[in-house]
Design brief:
binds cobalt (II) ion; metal ion binding; MeMalonyl-CoA_epimerase; 3 helices; methylmalonyl-CoA epimerase activity; binds ligand LZKTLF4L; eight-stranded mixed β-sheet; Methylmalonyl-CoA epimerase; VOC_core
Length: 133
């Protein structure tokens, strides 16, 4: 894992939260993207080398909808940039982590992604991201 790729924040209303983070960073989101397979719509903000992903649910079954129901708005996951997601998944499986999708899926912002179950990472949902070249 090379660096934090983004921090995902679950929000109830993307429009409202876009304005909050635009004020916070003094700049608008650089990207808005829906990821149907995850039942989410996202916006991305860059602040220097850091990236924030706001996520709102578009379906009741969405992981974000369930998270909001259970925990309310807040940090949802930490995503890490990886060189080779396939070998990283194999390494982490060997280390005993539960990989929620062993076959990388298409994420937002042009990435292949996979997730580790938070039960093995002290309650923090971890996302692996590999840039799609
Ligand atoms: C891919 C697009 C975009 C991108 O960056 O490219 C994204 O980041 S999409 C992000 C949304 N997608 C996901 O989160 C996919 C991975 N998540 C899952 O598979 C589930 O959300 C899972 C397995 C983490 C939890 O699902 P489950 O149906 O088991 O929900 P429960 O409410 O029963 O949770 C079980 C247990 O886990 C705790 N939990 C749930 N979500 C989180 C979280 N985000 N962070 C930390 N902990 C979480 C929940 O509290 C339950 O704990 P318990 O102690 O049993 O109460
Ligand atoms: Co993410």
């Amino acid at each position: 894992m090379r660096k934090i790729e983004h921090i995902g924040i679950a929000v109830k209303d993307l429009e409202v939260s876009n304005l909050v983070f635009e004020k916070l960073f003094g700049a608008p989101a650089y990207k808005f993207e829906a990821v149907e397979s995850e039942g989410v719509t996202t916006s991305f903000f860059k602040n220097g080398p850091n990236k924030i992903e706001l996520l709102a649910a578009t379906t009741p079954e969405s992981p974000i909808a369930k998270f909001l129901e259970k925990k309310g708005e807040g940090i949802h996951h930490i995503a890490f940039d990886v060189e080779d997601i396939i070998s990283e998944i194999a390494r982490l499986k060997k280390e005993g982590f539960v990989v929620l999708n062993e076959i990388p899926k298409k994420g937002a912002d042009n990435k292949w992604v996979a997730f580790l179950h938070p039960k093995n990472t002290n309650g923090v949902l971890i996302e692996l991201c590999q840039e799609i070249k």
